[in-house]
Design a protein that fits this description.
The chain is α+β, with helices and mostly antiparallel strands and 753 residues long. The chain folds into four domains: 90 residues, Phosphorylase Kinase, domain 1 (2-Layer Sandwich), CATH 3.30.200; 185 residues, Orthogonal Bundle (Transferase(Phosphotransferase), domain 1), CATH 1.10.510.10; 136 residues, Rossmann fold (3-Layer(aba) Sandwich); 118 residues, Serine Threonine Protein Phosphatase 5, Tetratricopeptide repeat, CATH 1.25.40. It is built from 30 helices and 17 strands. β2 and β3 form a beta hairpin. About 3% of the residues have low confidence.
Length: 753
């Protein structure tokens, strides 16, 4: 093959190359004369540096295979894929014109012309999607504008083709980050709605003259794509029709099920809007898009004289979230995300934009004896105006009726319906006893604080609620959750906590076989103690089937999948949890932990950075960051991060063990030995897991001592065998392949990797 420098005026097979049209990281494009058919063609070659790269050759083949299936006036036609002197190239239709971004810079098209270009792009997408092809890299550089101002989509090198499994793997973020959908940026599974998101970004950029998100680095960009809303178009261009703003916002919704569900639906609204602009009468789009389709419920403020009544406002908000979640076509921000704004003086519109919702419900509670005064107001995020507000003066015994009244008013205001047309969202009656319900709310309030004292207090409240109403299933779920966390946080030994969690989870399941929380609680126990991986997975999936928006079930299923070696599935599952709970710090940390276990350290760092951008003091994020920094060989930063965790959360075996391992790996043996002594002292006053001890001994080269500690961890059923994944923990790599380590894995029912 002739080298790049001398290709002009050369002939490759029967193509005479005349001009170089452009180049990028994955291809060089030339204009050539097809001497056999007497026509001009474009030829795309792999760069010489990639001519022997099998992955690059595969991408070129994908492009040819994908585009060759498509024959449409808005898609560049592929003629052939060929090889000459070991260098692959494809021949395609030559489009006399320029790329979309260059065209728009030169012409400054009007809104009507922008919509005309969008109509052509959408028409090409309709054809591709009908053929089961998702482009996955739609951007201005991959749209050509010909001499007739017609848009033509090109470069299907990253296309996902239906039925071709190797092109549908999760965990991949190949493409151009600025135009990626949230699910693609997170490495999750994508479908045709990802292309619709990318087109929304293109339209935003054409109208505003700038991209919707502009960040200094990749981690910050991914965070913005997943969590933040772009500025309103009106900030950059005056007199932007409201309907155009809505159309683009719908294309760019964070959740795929809130976007246009097909390119054909999008084309209908673009044509309608284009007609309206030409006539000067802005015709509204379908009514479906005129009402809010997403809502966040904030904790109700405590206006009582007694600050201890704060639990009631939190509980009221949580019950309303649970009721509204059952509504068809209404996205409800999850509890963790909504409660992240508790006590913060932030404008409601900013909260709504951060949570990607159309409306926000806020309110207050004044509780005096058995009397309640509850105020609630539903606020439209777009303009800050009230959609509905009401005050309720009732007796405590009427609490469920009040919750029903509020949820029914929201339903009427938002014009949404329940599955099956039942017409209202009712709060389930978990108990008929108001006193038991009150104690349950107090228990959940204490449980959410996650400290040793609060977890013990939550158990006391749940026990009191159960004493009043033994059939109160949710109280048993709360009890199981509290005992499990006492074990997970190393406050109690497994033998002192897990049996109680098992009993409570089993009782909850017996009382309410359709409670998603009961399935999740029992599955969690099966992971921590029983090591029944298949049974736990079935119960996590049953919890998700009952409540698809149950982010914690997705999160813990992801951890289970990573433990059993299915890291691609785990990455997809944790990404779903992140989409449901974008502001959850612990879910973000678990996303980082899963990447760490797969030794994808760069992605783990990105996940931790996102969490720390939200809360720089969150210790778990610094813990995962420290593990990852050690994996990258940056021991100084790893030690600094782990010291910060120890200061924030106190000394535990796992934190101290990680710090000791980092010291030993860095050659600081004396410091590692001091950590071992510290752990021995800690064991005199509280439970310590041998797992952390094992990691230090291993880094110090004491294999026998490491094995003894790991075997003791198995005997004690230490939860860190699961949380830090014995089968995948990179720090245990020196033991893999040894018979003694294989026996440990077999005891846990895990396969050797």
């Amino acid at each position: 093959m002739t080298s790049q420098k001398t290709m002009i005026d050369q002939t490759v097979r029967h193509y005479r190359i005349t001009t170089k049209l452009g180049e990028g990281g994955m291809g060089e494009v030339y204009l050539a004369e097809d001497t056999k058919l007497n026509r001009r063609v474009a030829m795309k070659f792999l760069p010489e540096s990639l001519s022997s790269d099998n992955d690059a050759r595969e991408l070129l083949l994908r492009e040819a295979q994908a585009a060759s299936k498509l024959s449409h006036s808005n898609i560049v036609t592929i003629y052939s894929i060929e090889t000459s002197e070991g260098r692959d190239f494809i021949t395609m239709e030559y489009v006399e014109g320029e790329e979309l971004d260059a065209y728009c810079r030169a012409k400054s098209p009007s809104l009507d012309e922008i919509l005309g270009l969008a109509t052509g792009i959408v028409a090409g997408l309709i054809k591709a999607h009908q053929m089961g092809i998702v482009h996955r890299d739609l951007k201005p550089g991959n749209v050509l504008i010909d001499a007739d101002a017609r848009a033509k989509i090109c470069d299907f090198g990253l296309a996902k083709i239906e039925g071709v499994s190797k092109l549908t793997q999760s965990g991949s973020t190949m493409g151009t980050l600025s135009y990626m959908s949230p699910e693609q940026a997170l490495g999750s599974e994508v479908d045709h709605r990802s292309d619709i998101y990318s087109l929304g970004v293109i339209l935003y950029e054409l109208v505003a003259g700038r991209p919707p998100f502009k960040e200094p680095n990749e981690a910050a960009m991914i965070y913005s794509i997943v969590n933040e809303q772009p500025e309103p178009l009106a900030r950059y261009k005056a007199d932007v029709p409201e309907e155009l703003q809505r159309l683009i916002a719908k294309c760019m919704s964070k959740r795929p099920d809130e976007r246009y569900q097909s390119a054909a639906d999008l084309r209908t609204d673009i044509k309608k809007l284009k007609t309206s602009l030409q006539s000067g009468k802005c015709e509204e789009l379908s009514d479906e898009r005129q009402v809010p389709r997403s809502i966040a419920v904030l904790p109700f403020s405590n206006m009582s004289a007694d600050p201890d009544n704060e639990y009631f406002g939190d509980g009221l908000a949580e019950e309303l979230i649970n009721a509204l979640t059952s509504l068809q076509r209404l996205h409800v921000a999850a509890r963790t995300s909504s409660f992240a704004f508790k006590g913060k003086d932030i404008d409601i519109r900013d909260i709504g934009r951060q949570l990607n919702v159309d409306a926000v419900l806020e309110g207050s509670v004044r509780k005096a004896g058995k009397r309640l005064r509850i105020t609630a107001q539903l606020i439209n995020v777009a303009d800050g105006y009230h959609l509905w507000s009401q005050r309720f003066d009732r007796e405590m015994e009427d609490v469920f009726a009040i919750q029903d009244e509020i949820s029914e008013a929201i339903v009427a205001t938002l014009k949404v319906t329940l599955d099956g047309g039942r017409g209202a969202a009712h709060v389930a009656r978990p108990t008929t006893n108001v006193e038991a319900y009150n104690l349950y709310l107090k228990g959940r309030f204490a449980w959410s604080k996650r400290t040793a004292a609060d977890l013990r207090e939550s158990i006391a409240f749940f026990d009191q609620a159960i004493a009043i109403d033994p059939n109160f299933a949710l109280a048993h779920v709360g009890l199981a959750d509290s005992w499990s966390l006492l074990c997970s946080y190393h406050i109690l030994a497994p033998k002192d906590s897990i049996p109680q969690a098992k009993v409570a989870a089993a009782k909850a399941m017996e009382l309410d076989p359709n409670a998603a929380g009961a399935y999740e609680a029992r599955a969690h126990v099966r992971i921590l103690d029983d090591w029944l991986w298949a049974e736990a997975e079935r119960e996590f999936r049953r919890a998700i089937e009952i409540n698809p928006g149950y982010a914690t079930a997705h999160q813990r299923l992801a951890l289970l999948q990573s433990l059993t070696g299915r890291l691609d599935e785990a990455a997809e599952q944790i990404a779903r949890a992140q989409l449901l709970e974008p502001l959850s710090l612990i879910i973000g940390c678990d996303a980082g932990l899963i990447s760490y276990m797969g030794q994808d350290y760069e992605r783990a760092v990105q996940q931790c950075q996102r969490v720390l951008a939200m809360n720089d003091g969150f210790g778990v994020a610094h813990f995962v960051m420290g593990l990852t920094q050690e994996g990258l060989g940056d021991f100084e930063k790893a030690v600094a991060s782990l010291h910060r965790v120890k200061t924030a959360l106190g000394a535990t075996t796992v934190i101290s063990g990680a710090l000791g391992h980092a010291y030993a790996s860095a050659g600081q043996v004396d410091e590692a030995q001091m950590i071992l002594e510290e752990i021995n002292e800690l064991a005199e006053s509280r439970y310590v897991s041998p797992y952390g001890v094992a990691t230090i001994h291993l880094a110090l080269g004491n294999k026998d001592a490491a094995y003894e500690a790991l075997e003791e961890s198995v005997t004690q059923r230490s939860v860190w065998l699961v949380h830090l994944h014995l089968a995948a923990d990179p720090r245990l790599a020196p033991l893999r392949g040894e018979a003694r380590f294989t026996r440990l894995l077999q005891l846990l029912g895990l396969q050797v990797r």
